[in-house]
Amino acid sequence: MKVETIRALWKRPTRKSVSLSKLLLATYILLALVAPIIAPQNPHDPLQIYAWEASSPPLAMGGGGYTYLLGTDGLGRDIVSTILYGLRISLVVSITSTAIAALIGVAAGVSAAYFGKWVDVVIMRIVDLQLSLPTILVALIAIVTLGPGIDRIILAIIIVQWAVYARIARGVALSEISKSYLDAARLQRLPTRRVIFRHLLPNSIAPAITLVPIELGHAVALEATLSFLGLGVPIDKPSLGSTVASGFQYLLTGQYWISLFPGLALFGLIASINFVGEDVRRLLDPRNRSI
Amino acid sequence: MKQDSIQRPLLEVSNLTLKHRATSGATTILRDVSMKLHRGEILGLIGESGAGKSTLGNAILGLLTPEFERTAGTILFNGQALESMDERQWDAIRGRRISAVFQDHTASLDPLMTIGAQLEETIRATDGNVSAHQARARAFDLLVRVGIPNPHERYASFPHQFSGGQRQRVVIAIALAGTPQIIVADEPTSALDATVQKQILRLLRELVDETGVSVILVTHDMGVVAEITDKVVVMKRGEVVEADTTSTILDDPRKGYTRRLLAAVPRLRVRSCEQSDNRSSTDREMGSDAEAPILIVQGVTKTFSGQGFPWFRKHTRKLALRNVSVRLARGAITGIVGESGSGKSTVGRIIAGLETAGEGTLDIDGTSYDISLPGQRSGLLGRVQMIFQDPAVSLNPRMSVAETLQESVRFGSRRPLGARPDVATMMERLGLAQSLLARYPHQLSGGQKQRVCIARALLAGPQIIVADEPTSALDVSVQAEIAKLLKEMVTEQAVSMLFISHDLALVQELCSSVYIFKEGVVEDAGSSEFIFSRSRNSYTRSLIDARPRRFTY
């Protein structure tokens, strides 16, 4: 499966024009990777922040020997640097949580399908329950119970997202189980582990994987939402969402830059992930793959 | 009328060449195909999968997707060139002058509309001047015409309330709604049981004789061709191999391919051989087999309970098997014949330990197994191997042939390490090249896949193999090869086989004794010779009569 998937992804970009969204996403990832090198300031380090330069407008000259291209926030942190470092946090949180959620979800869904009976009932009723509650509510409950912190946010997003994967994986696994090759596997008295990992899982995983890019976009948005509500990342390590939130109170006094620029960066990030995700999903969908 | 039809054909396809453009490049689907259809004629288009017969049918219906490109040739219908028509012009032809009947009768009907409404809709769509009242009257007439019993009562019924055969009758009625000149019927009976198939074919013949409509019958089944067609076009890989009247094709085929197709059709012998009739009725139960049977299944009863909460399940309960007893002779093939829903596959799965049964006993070689327990717990699972119907889904698509076969040797084999069979030897014996070992299922043909499935079953070293319709998803010529192979394997590998099929001729060819299943009950049983020549059971007789005469002797 792995080889096929990679091949399917590889085949398409032979088109000469790289779409804007792909370019944008690539830029975001590159910026996140090199943020410590190119950022004029480390916004996580209090020693590099000059509190008396708080709320400087864009293009103001700063005491550190560099221009605040996009101004500073209410604590005197350079907005450019905050965006670059915030990007890192946003991406780490969303990628980690999406990957773990997919893993847990697929495992739960396939187990429900394979073991059936009470395992199926228990897992799928939890899934139903969870999907019937609004996403943000589930996340809020999780955060309130677990407490703040980056790891807690990741956990909250996993709790919100695993159910989607579980439901899809279960459906696919059920249809695979009805195929005769799994009967044949049972007739050979293969160990349960082998039936699941060698036969069932590799054939049930593809549709769930097509969900990953889209859920990644949701994860970024959810993290930003939680941070905006003040339930997210700690104040000294702002993500894109929490920077937007911290600038919110200054909007009325005309200091638009604190919220606006991180907001735009966030918008571009989610949009590019969603567009690229849609492309990837279409490529991975076997129904769209011509032989 | 004959004179007139000879002069001017209703439909004439000349030198049609079609290419299919895909991302991987263009492939020629039809090459230089020509055919003529006259009024009141049934023309059979026959060929194996990939022959291009359905594509030709779709071209005549104007239903080709944009990936198809016509590079040469014309399709003339009443002097009009169909191949260059746009969608608006097609609207005047399709459904009115040329209509269609497809294989899948369930997908051909709207599940949310009553059949009466669907008929009326079609009638009014093809003729704008019809009043609601007239449309209703015509719809009734059509239902009567296609033989739907009690049309007044069934008029407001939904498609799911009909049986498969009746649904196909309704589809034919809809095809007739626009009083067409041509009906293109693409495998109209392939999804139906043999007895129903016969009735539908008879209906088509009657309609042609009465209304003078012409039918293009796309099929892979020589039996269907022999039954009702006037002319036959034999196709192979997009080309016309031979075209002539049906009797000429059947009695005096010119081309080797046609002869091979005909030879591959299993023949049913119904005339009694020179065996005396005076065997006692207990003797016929197991033929002349003196040895103890390897498998004895007795009194198996199984109910399928419906889904849902336990206290609702009672109402959806369905008896799948009732007091079924089957014995399997050692080193021979025993057949189970039945139409869909007769429970024949369920018996096979119970014997293999894949399903449980409420009541009954099962003995393999003197060892009893509790079939009310899941196969893993009773130890039955693994003693019996299976060969499945659809080779497309019976191999793990993500495992190569080598991995599949080695897994069977490693895990499935009940023999000690030293005595384990060799994958390479088995491949060679089954006519599979060593180079196929590295391939994945989607890179194999249907016949090759089924051979791999046979190898997988044999490599596990079972005493018993249950073959559930192992040839019905394959082309006719491949069917014959696989059947021959199964027969040889039973002798060579010293296994006993339960052969489940709906094909009487194939069962006769392979099996020494036969069970006839009907609605979950053993309706008739005996030696192959007894069942096919001397059984007086009316159901057995009706199954035999449903076979095309041409291939029965």
From TrEMBL, chain A:
Pfam families: BPD_transp_1 (PF00528). Residues 87-277 form the ABC transmembrane type-1 domain. One of its GO terms (biological process) is transmembrane transport. InterPro entries: BP-dependent_transpt_permease, MetI-like, MetI-like_sf. GO terms for cellular component: plasma membrane. Keywords: Cell membrane, Membrane, Transmembrane, Transmembrane helix, Transport. The chain crosses the membrane at residues 20-39, 91-115, 195-214, 256-277. It is found in: Cell membrane. PROSITE patterns: ABC_TM1 (PS50928). It is a multi-pass membrane protein. It comes from the Bacteria. PANTHER family: ABC TRANSPORTER PERMEASE PROTEIN, OLIGOPEPTIDE TRANSPORT SYSTEM PERMEASE PROTEIN APPC. Belongs to the binding-protein-dependent transport system permease family. This is ABC transporter permease. It comes from Ferirhizobium litorale. The lineage of its organism: Bacteria, Pseudomonadati, Pseudomonadota, Alphaproteobacteria, Hyphomicrobiales.
UniProtKB/TrEMBL annotation, chain B:
Its main location: membrane. It is a peripheral membrane protein. Pfam families: ABC_tran, oligo_HPY. The keyword Transport applies. Signal peptide: none annotated. Gene3D superfamilies: P-loop containing nucleotide triphosphate hydrolases (3.40.50.300). InterPro entries: AAA+_ATPase, ABC_transp_ATP-bind, ABC_transporter-like_ATP-bd, ABC_transporter-like_CS, Oligopep_ABC_C, P-loop_NTPase. Keywords: ATP-binding, Nucleotide-binding, Transport. Residues 11-262, 295-544 form the ABC transporter domain. One of its GO terms (biological process) is transmembrane transport. It comes from the Bacteria. CDD domains: ABC_NikE_OppD_transporters. GO terms for cellular component: plasma membrane. One of its GO terms (molecular function) is ATP hydrolysis activity. It is found in: Cell inner membrane. Belongs to the ABC transporter superfamily. This is ABC transporter ATP-binding protein.
